[in-house]
Every structure is written in structure tokens, then in C-alpha cells.
Design brief:
single chain, 322 residues, mainly beta, nine-stranded antiparallel beta sheet, six-stranded antiparallel beta sheet, globular
Amino acid sequence: MSILTLRDSQSGSFARIAVNRGFNCFEFKAAVGGRVVDVIDSEPGFETGAGRPSGNGVPVLFPFPNRIAGGRFKWAGKDYFIPAEVAPYDRTGNAIHGFSIDVPWRVVEQTESSATGEFQLSVDAPNRRSLWPADCIIRLKYTVVGAKLRTDIEVINPDTQPLPFGFGTHTYFKVPLATGSKPSDCLAFAPVRDCWDLTECLPSGRRLPIPEGLDLIGGQQFGARPLDNGFGVLPADEIVCELRDTAAGLRVRQATPGHYPELVIYTPPQRDSICFEPYTCMTDAINLEAQGTPAGWLVLEPGARFTSWIDIEASEAERLQC
């Protein structure tokens, strides 16, 4: 299996990428004030085939994040069906997390501290090409600089037909951030404004107030309640989620531009990690919008491009009693 190691020679921070498992950044260790922060959670042996591609590291979700109900949708008057035999599915019968998450990508550029991978549907998953209305290309460039992992994203429509799509990532952040801390020492912060009504992870189309007792703006203690929620975020030029280890005086922040209006936050059961999942659209957006519910679904015209970025950075923070 092809593994890339990216290093920032000045700081000593490094990341590792599993090219053949969806160009997944399964390890990022950031140097912060003389300490090493192990930021990303993945199970031992992931790089050699252990574990699910969607359950470790930084899964890349394209051309749709999260689920399409029953794997069925209609686009431009044509019915589409994504069968479980061909693409990833969840346990309740829904297509999940797109077409690029579990296949090899191609490395198109590499330096000591950065690497760019490319996935094209017709080239890298040709058996899935007929399942989507248009061919598509996604390029990701990972760069390690200081205590930051930078991801630059580019989506391209190489087809003669419009490309419907959504994009997101599903990063598993380790909890806690230091060996001397406990998971309960950690707080999760996110700028959420409302919550999607979900049934078995699928949105009904209704937006609800934030559940009582859930304070992500002020800081929610890890483990206080299980999370698997879809949120709308407060509009801003930059959207920041944060995991703060109050005992160690460390934090990890994930920042995106404002064109990620939806956010899924997930705490895997019986596991000390949390996922902040920035999405350009909500789960099942292609079907929600067909029903008249705005959900952020994007369309690229032939030859057009969409560009974005995601920063994950570790730093020191004030020590507090959680």
C-alpha cells in the first residue's frame, strides 16, 4: 500500500497519507511548545488495510457527503440508483459518503511537506461512473506547516453535462490531546444555530432548535452525551470548530471558509474521539432539494471549478478546570 509522509522540517510536525484508501490522512502529529500533539485518530494497521475507510483518519466525502436515502435520486429527469454491490452503504440501506472514500487515488505532485492527490470518477472508479449524472474530478493538496495541516480542495467538472455535487470531510479527532489528561477534561466548541430533525441519520427537512443541555457555542464536555447530529452553522467568513483539552492546556481547531453551512458532529460509540464534519450540503441534499427544501446542493457547469480549504491546527490554550 502506498503511504506518503509529509514533514515540516522546521517544527518537526508530520502527517501520513494512505493513498490507496481514499487519499486518507490517517495521522497528524503537531509540534506545539515542546510537546507533540497526536491529532488524528485511526486504529493500528489502518495503513495496511485494517478498519473501515469511513471510520478512521480524514475520510474524503465526494461527490456527496453522508447519505442518499436508499441510494436513489432523480436528476435532470433521469432516475439513478446506487447499488450496495458497487458503492459504500450503511447498515440501514442508504448509499453513504460518496465514491472516492475507499479507492486508490493518484499522486500528481509531491514535496517534502505537501502532496496532491487526484480522483476522477471515470478513471479511478469506472464501475461507478454510470451511477452519477456527470464525470467529476477532485484534487486535494495536503500541506504540513508548523503545527497546521492545510488541505486545499479543487473540484472540476470535465464533462459536457452539469455536475451536481456536495463535499465534506469526516475527521476523527483524538480525545484527549495529552497522555496526562482524561477524555472528560475536553470541551467541544462549534458555532451552531439549529439542528436538523433526523430519523436514522436522514433529515426530514425540518430544522429544530438546539437540543436542551447541548452547549456547543459555550463548550460541551466530551462524553456528557452521545452526538450524531446535523447542524446548521452561524454564517461567517470563517467557521471554526475546536476541541480543547483544559487539563493539558492544548487545543485543536478546524477552520473552513463560510461555504460550509452544514456541520455533522459525531462521537463514535465506545471510542475516545470526536468528528467535526464540515459539509457544503446536508445529508440527502439532492433529494431534499427535489422536495423543495434548501440543503446546499451545488452544481458545476461544464469546465467550471470549485475551490476551498480546510485548516487543522494545534496550539496551546489556557488550562482550566472542566
